[in-house]
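Per reviewer request, we include the raw input and output of the structure prediction for the construct analysed in the revised manuscript.
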Amino acid sequence: MTLEEFFRENRLVALGFSGGVDSSYLLWAARSLGADVRAYYAKSAFQPAFEMQDALSIAKHIGAEVKVLSADILASKEVAANPENRCYHCKKILFGALVAQASADGIQVIIDGTNASDDLGDRPGAAALAEMSVRSPLRECGLTKSDIRRLSKEAGLPNWNKPAYSCLATRVPSGREITSELLQRVEGAEAALFALGFDGFRVRVFGEAAKLQLPFEQMKKALDMREDVLKALRPFFDQILLDMESRQPQ
């Protein structure tokens, strides 16, 4: 199957839109192929403010409107407890809200940006999407991450090389309760590190410390800027650790 064939069969669809490379290309492709696609962004404590702004910006570039759905994700005890399958419970809530809103808008086909490179065996959230009959056109059409970046670049999408971004909850180790206060500290620390010129990194919660996972080529920079990094992150964490195993941005 090709995307053209998919959208020929499914003319009216609701897209779970994050503003990342995959969902952005899917939104562009659907509109380019003549489908009536409605984009929905799920806003919760797990997404930093810049992610929603990026999503709205790329949607505007594409010429699409986005309906923002708000969810009090930490009101769910299953999510806040942060079990290993937290993503399953989270997806059930966020896409459950999307399905309900799309149905109210007269849309029955729900799609997301999962691609052929995604390992579904390591994604509890994939089971939740399957239970709700969410379709993944990029995966169904065999499009990999590298394919999508290439096609996005050819389409002139400005975020074609945007690094993959996982939600803030992934910074907290499984089994540790997730609180709004902890997420705000992580978000603040990552924003401070980004302001210093770093990218493709993660700030992980490690006990009461922040553990910085940086791409290899930025580790020397972090050491050279040691005092600046400490000063920027100290408002959020008393201890700052550098993970010597470098991180490879996706």
